[in-house]
Amino acid sequence: MKNIAILGATGSIGESALKVIRNFPDKFRVVALSANADIDKLNERIKEFKPFSVGVNDCSRALALSKMVKPGVRVFAGSAGLVELVKDKRIDQILFAISGAGALMPLLSAIESGKHIALANKEALVMAGPLIMRLSGKKNARIIPVDSEQSAIWQCLKTEDGRSLKNIYLTASGGPLRKLNKQALKEIRLKEVLKHPRWKMGKKISVDSATLMNKGLELLEAMFLFNVDISKIKVLVHPEALVHSMVEFIDGVIIGQLSITDMRIPIQYALSYPQRLESKLGGIDFCKVGALHFEQPDMVKFPCLGLAYEAARKLGTLPCVLNAANEVAVWEFLREKLRFIDIAEVVEKVMRSHVNNPKPALRDIWEADSWARIEARKIIRRLN
């Protein structure tokens, strides 16, 4: 029986993880849960899974939840609360399904405590990848990626010598706006952006998928997770989203990981590793698929991907700045205070204004994050 904590239990990844756990009550036990602010849904999960502890990012909502739960369930408030929650010695593995920079400090705390990690958060690695990977090695805290693309790469590389790697092919569905021209993107509305053709995702990641920033964050994530130079990571648009990524070796062999588009598959493997458990989900019917298509991403139409490649080449605090500016711009777009095409412009202007620190400590990373958010808001005010 593996004791699991799920941070971000009320979001799409957290909900998918709970579905997996329901299928294997003899394999997994939920001992901790967290949510951002949806305490009603969280309380339903508390009643079902009976965790020892829960966390709520919104401190006022945490206080309200503490009055709703039965005695014996400890309620942690805010980011500082999550930092403490993850230290619990009863936890074997923590699924990080929190989006955004807020995952960084709880993640570092979990690694410092020697916990094994199932990681579905991109932003923390983008901000502080070298620090996270050094600490995980020092503390022997295994990090298993949950994103379908990173899980695919991890599975393809698992038994291979890194010296035999030639290229990683990171696949992208292309998002809901792939076929639109640049002029049409100027008038695109929020409702259309959130209609992803293949995946059911949260709002922030849906916007990132539409701008291709999601793939930009993933290429930075892959650099750090697998210790690979950016020159070896190629992005391919693959509309069918069945090949979740591929790895090419120096002898010309390419190994890919294929499955249907359902996040329960990589989540289940991350939780059950090194064992594979039988899935109740269907497989791919190749005769019905007929053909798989691949194409180059259009970085003129979707400049966020090019900005991510730039940050990956320069590193230092620039990936952190890229992420922070993007979070602010996406939030303003979700509030319908910024046009879709202005997201990339905001990120680029913030990056151009930044004085890069090539070897940042954690304090430098947080300073860069704060600066980038302030700068992004200044630029957005000027655009409006």
Compact summary:
The chain has helices spanning 12-23, 39-49, 59-66, 78-85, 104-112, 123-139, 148-157, 182-185, 190-193, 203-211, 213-226, 264-272, 286-289, 304-314, 318-334, 342-353, 362-383; strands at 2-7, 28-35, 53-56, 74-77, 93-96, 116-119, 143-145, 165-172, 233-237, 243-249, 254-258.
The sequence of SSEs as H and E is EHEHEHEHEHEHEHEHHHHEEEHHHHHH
- Give the overall average pLDDT: 95
Q: Please report the total strand number as a whole number.
A: 11
Q: Which ranges are low-confidence, i.e. pLDDT below 50, for 5 or more consecutive residues?
A: none
CATH class of the largest domain: Mainly Alpha
Q: Identify the overall geometry.
A: globular
As a whole number of angstroms, the C-alpha radius of gyration is 20 Å
Question: Helix count?
Answer: 17
CATH architecture of the largest domain: Orthogonal Bundle
Here the CATH topology of the largest domain equals: Rna Polymerase Sigma Factor, Chain: A
Main structural class: alpha/beta
**What's the name of the CATH homologous superfamily of the largest domain?**
RNA polymerase sigma factor, region 2, helix turn helix motif
Instruction: List the strand order in the largest sheet.
Output: 4-3-2-1-5-6-7
Q: Give the terminus-to-terminus CA distance.
A: 54 Å
Question: How helical, in percent, are the residues?
Answer: 40-55%
- Domain module count: 2
Major beta-sheet overview: 7 strands, parallel
Residues in β-strands, percent = 15-25%
